[in-house]
Specification:
Strand content: 15-25%
Strand order of the largest sheet: 3-2-1-7-20
CATH topology of the largest domain: FAD/NAD(P)-binding domain
Number of strands: 22
Radius of gyration: 23 Å
Helix content: 25-40%
Largest sheet: 5 strands, parallel
Shape: globular
Oligomer: single chain
C-alpha cells in the first residue's frame, strides 16, 4: 500500500468528499485535509457530538446523500486508503519537482505547523458569502445568512427571537425556513430579485425539475410558518444603539433603485443578510492556476492548467451542492487514473458530465436572477463603515476615487487601507468595488490565511537547511 500514489484533497465539503471517495475507490491513497473538526463543510455541517442532537437530519437537505458519503469515507478510512486530517487550516500549497507540499496550521489556535506531501492535489476549497454594506450593517445582531445557518446546524442555537432574512440568493430560503422551524419569529423574507426574472430563464430552470420542486417546498414551508415574503425589496438601513432593534426596507424600481415612499420599518433583533457567494481561489492563485474571472479554470476532467492540480466545487464557480458533488466525482476519478499511469476515458463518467452541464446551466440562470440591486450603493451613506478591519468609511472610498483618481481595487486599497486587515478584503472587497465603480478582480496573495511569524521563520530555517544539504550547483552533497 505504501507505494501507491498520494492525492491530497483540500476541503471536506460535497466536492472534496466526492473526490476523496472516487479516488480511493480507484486505488489511490488520499489525504483529506479540512479546517473543521468534522467532515461536511457548511452544506453538511453537523452539530458537535456532545450536543446529542436527536434529529440532525431535520436541519439538512438531501440527508441520504450525506449518509452515503459519510459511510463511504469511514469505510475507506478503516481500510487505510484515506487519511482524514481535521482542524488543519491550509495556508499554502507548494509545487516543486512535480510533487506538492501542503502547509497547514493545526487546531483552533492555528499556531502549530504541519506539512503534508502529495503527488497531486484536488482543490475543493468552496466559497464564501458576499455581503454588501448598508447603514447599520455593523450593529450586533446583524449576521450573514450563512452565519445564522451555521449557528443553527453546528451549535443548535438561534441568533435571536425575531429575525428578518434579507438580500438575494437561493440560500435565503433554507435560512428563513430553518430559523422559523427552530422557533424564531421570521418577520419577513426580503428578496431583491423580481419574480418575473425567473420567467426569462424558464428553459434552464425547467431542465432541473427537482431543484424547482425543492424551491417550491421551501416556499410552502414559509407559508406554513406565516413568513411574509417581500419580493423586489431591499434593506436600506438597520437601526439600534447597542444592538439591532429594527430594519427599514423599501421596494425597488425597475432600475434597481429605491422607490420613494415605500419605506417600512420592521422591528427585529436579528438580521440575517447575504447577497450570494464568491469562489474561494486563494490556494489556486498561489499555485499559479488560471482564473476565469473570479473562478478557477478547469477542463472536462476538472484539471487546472497547473499539472497535478484539479479543482472542483464552488472554487470553479458557485453552483450548489449537486454540481459540487458531480465535479468532485469527476476530479477524483480523473486524478486516480492519471496518478496510476493511465489515461482517463471520459465515457466512464459521461452521465456525470451531462449532469454537470445541466447543473451548470441551472446555476448560471440562478446567478442572473439573483443579481444584487444595480443601484444598491446609492443607499450607502458616507459615514457607513465598509471595511470593518481598518474602519474605512464609504466617504473615504468615494474621496479616493473622486479626488485622488483611484480606478481599481488595488489603488483604493493603497490609498485607504480598505482590505488590509485580518480578512484581507474577503468581506469588504465587493462593497468597495461597488462604491468605487470598478471591477472585482482576484487578488493574488502569498498565503491563503494569516500565518504566525514563528511558523514562517521555521519554514525559512527548514528550507535553508534543505538548500545546504541538497545543493543545486552540481557540487558534492
Amino acid at each position: 500500500m505504501t507505494d501507491r500514489p498520494r492525492l491530497a484533497v483540500i476541503g471536506a465539503g460535497p466536492a472534496g468528499l466526492a473526490a476523496t471517495v472516487a479516488a480511493a475507490a480507484h486505488g489511490v491513497r488520499v489525504t483529506l485535509i479540512d479546517a473543521a473538526a468534522q467532515a461536511g463543510a457548511q452544506f453538511y455541517r453537523q452539530p458537535a457530538a456532545a450536543l446529542r442532537a436527536g434529529r440532525p437530519q431535520a436541519l439538512h437537505h438531501d440527508w441520504r446523500t450525506w449518509q452515503r458519503l459519510r459511510e463511504a469515507l469511514d469505510a475507506h478510512v478503516r481500510a487505510g486508503a484515506v487519511e482524514h486530517l481535521t482542524d488543519h487550516h491550509v495556508w499554502l500549497v507548494e509545487r516543486e519537482s512535480g510533487r506538492f507540499t501542503v502547509h497547514a496550521l493545526l487546531g483552533p489556535e492555528e499556531e502549530d505547523a504541519v506539512a503534508v506531501s502529495a503527488d497531486a492535489v484536488v482543490l475543493a476549497t468552496g466559497g464564501y458569502e458576499k455581503v454588501l454594506p448598508f447603514p447599520g450593517w455593523t450593529l450586533p445582531g446583524v449576521v450573514t445568512a450563512g452565519g445564522a445557518q451555521a449557528m443553527l446546524k453546528g451549535a443548535l442555537v438561534v441568533p435571536g427571537r425575531t429575525a428578518v432574512v434579507a438580500g438575494t440568493g437561493p440560500l435565503l430560503l433554507p435560512v428563513a425556513v430553518g430559523l422559523a422551524a427552530a422557533g424564531v419569529k421570521v418577520a419577513a423574507l426580503v428578496e431583491s430579485a423580481a419574480p418575473r426574472a425567473f420567467l426569462r430563464r424558464t428553459r434552464a430552470l425547467a431542465a432541473q425539475p427537482g431543484k424547482v420542486a425543492e424551491g417550491a417546498g421551501y416556499a410552502a414551508r414559509l407559508l406554513r410558518h406565516r413568513v411574509r415574503t417581500l419580493a423586489r425589496h431591499t434593506v436600506i438601513e438597520a437601526h439600534g444603539i447597542d444592538r439591532l432593534e429594527a430594519v427599514t426596507v423599501a421596494a425597488l424600481d425597475g432600475e434597481g433603485g429605491v422607490r420613494a415612499g415605500t419605506e417600512r420599518r420592521i422591528p427585529c433583533d436579528t438580521l440575517a443578510v447575504g447577497h450570494g457567494m464568491l469562489p474561494h481561489t486563494d490556494l489556486a492563485e498561489t499555485l499559479g492556476c488560471r482564473l476565469d474571472g473570479l473562478r478557477v479554470h478547469v477542463d472536462g476532467e476538472q484539471r487546472t492548467d497547473v499539472p497535478g492540480v484539479w479543482a472542483a466545487g464552488e472554487a470553479t464557480g458557485i453552483g450548489g451542492s449537486a454540481l459540487a458533488l458531480t465535479e468532485g466525482h469527476i476530479a477524483g476519478r480523473s486524478a486516480a487514473v492519471r496518478l496510476t499511469g493511465g489515461t482517463p476515458d471520459p465515457q466512464e463518467w459521461v452521465a456525470a458530465a451531462k449532469s454537470r452541464t445541466r447543473l451548470g446551466e441551472f446555476a448560471a440562470a440562478l446567478d442572473a436572477v439573483y443579481a444584487p440591486p444595480a443601484n444598491w450603493s446609492e443607499q450607502v451613506t458616507d459615514d457607513t463603515v465598509v471595511c470593518r478591519c481598518e474602519e474605512v468609511t464609504a466617504g473615504t472610498v468615494r474621496e479616493a476615487v473622486a479626488q485622488l483618481g483611484a480606478g481599481d481595487l488595488r489603488t483604493v486599497k493603497l490609498l485607504t487601507r480598505a482590505g488590509m486587515g485580518w480578512c484581507q478584503g474577503r468581506i469588504c472587497a465587493p462593497g468597495v468595488v461597488g462604491l468605487a465603480g470598478c471591477e472585482l478582480t482576484a487578488s493574488r496573495r502569498p498565503f491563503a490565511r494569516p500565518v504566525p511569524l514563528g511558523v514562517l521563520a521555521e519554514e525559512h530555517s527548514q528550507s535553508t537547511t534543505r538548500a545546504h544539504t541538497h545543493p543545486t550547483d552540481g557540487g558534492p552533497s
